[in-house]
Structure formats: C-alpha cells, structure tokens
Amino acid sequence: MDGTLLDGRVIYVVGQKFGFKSEIEEIAKSSKVPYERSQRVAKLLKGLTVSEFTGVVKAIPLMKGVVEAVKQLKNRDYKVGIISDSYTLATEIVARKLEMDFHVANRLEVKNGVFTGSLKMPLGWEKIGCDCRQSVCKRYHLVSKAKKYRVGMVNTVAVGDSSSDRCMLENAGVGILFNPLEGNIMKNVNCTVRSKDLTLVLNCLK
Ligand SMILES: [Zn+2]
Questions:
Q1: For the sheet containing 81-87, what is the strand order?
Q2: Residues 96-116: pLDDT tens digits?
Q3: What is the maximum alpha-carbon separation in the chain?
Q4: Which of 71, 100, 72 lies closest to 84 in space, CA to CA?
Q5: Is 27 helix (H, G, I), strand (E, B) or coil?
Q6: What are phi and psi for residue 150, nearest 5 degrees?
Q7: What is the pTM of this model?
Q8: Could you report the per-residue pLDDT of 47-58, keeping only the tens digit for each?
Q9: Could you tell me the CA-to-CA distances from 137 to 47, 113, 185 in Å, in that order?
Q10: Per DSSP, what are the bridge partners of residue 160?
Q11: How far is the CA of 138 from the centre of ligand 1 (A)?
Q12: 131 C-alpha to ligand 1 centroid (Å)
C-alpha cells in the first residue's frame, strides 16, 4: 500500500504531523528483527486518537493510475487486495475507496478511541518457515488468499517496493517492483516499474 497504492507512507506522514518522524527513522535503522521494529513503532502512536490517525491517512493522495489499474484488473476477473505491514485502520480506508476484495495488516489496539501502543500482528512466517520475520509475512498471506479464492500461485501477481515485500514478490506468479526503495536485490522479480504511474504494472501482465 505505502508507495504503491498511496503516494506516501502512512507511518512517516503520521510521524511528521505529530512530531515523531525522527524516532521512526531511528527504529527503522535499528538492528532489531523486523516484527520487533513494528512493535516499537506502534508504541510511538500511544495516546494518539483514532480520528487523528485516520484524518491523516485520508489526506494522503492515491498513486497516479491506481483507480484505473484496479478497475482493469477487476474487469479481467482478478481478486485485488492489500497485504501491508501498515495498519488495518489505514488499509480499510484504501481498500474501501478502491473497492478491493481484501486487506491484511497489523491491528492497533484502541481503548476509548485512543491507541494504547500495543500491536496485534498477523505474522505467518512461523507457520511456513519464511525467514522474513516481518509483522506481516506477505508471502504467507498471499498464499492463504490464493487458497481462499482458489487461485493457483502461478496466477498470482504481487506489487511492492521494499524489502518487506521480498518474500511475497519472490514467491508470486508475477512479482513486480514498483519504484523500489533499495535497488533490486530480489530474485525472481519479473518486472520493475520506475515511474509513478500504477497503470504501467499492467504492462507486466500478459
Ligand atoms: Zn515472509
């Protein structure tokens, strides 16, 4: 979602607005395993209200071409969804706006409309022996959505831009890097788009 469906990254935009962007950057650079970094970032949201958070998310612009790309995929009978290591409160907004079929993300605990700093993570890597150790193993959730919709893995398509997408992009039928953040360090990536227009991913499909 961040940097692909949205022209921005939710946690950084929220951090910028509420004054903890440098703390996020510190955590991102730390040596902790990925899911522990996600837990530490969630702690920074403690005390923020749900409406403060969703207000910021709603103001992040969609990526150019996203409405058209999703529409064309749906016309071709693709199931379209979001697998993100952001938060369900954000993926819900974007999935609804784009009339998508599913979304998977971390769940922020809320009490009386305020974030407690605690995070419920979908994980998944521990079930399949994936070495990503992310708060959301995107490979695991791609496989389980493919099973749910009775789609062979060879017919799945994944789009991502960062190392947290690696296990998903390497195992999808078609893995597409969209304006990658870290240079192409991934195996079996079929296509790379280096322009901020999501309709260009359609050229990667037959
Ligand atoms: Zn994984």
A1: 81-87, 102-111, 114-120
A2: 999 999 999 999 999 999 999
A3: 49
A4: 100
A5: helix
A6: 55, 50
A7: 0.96
A8: 999 999 999 999
A9: 27, 28, 18
A10: 177
A11: 5
A12: 6
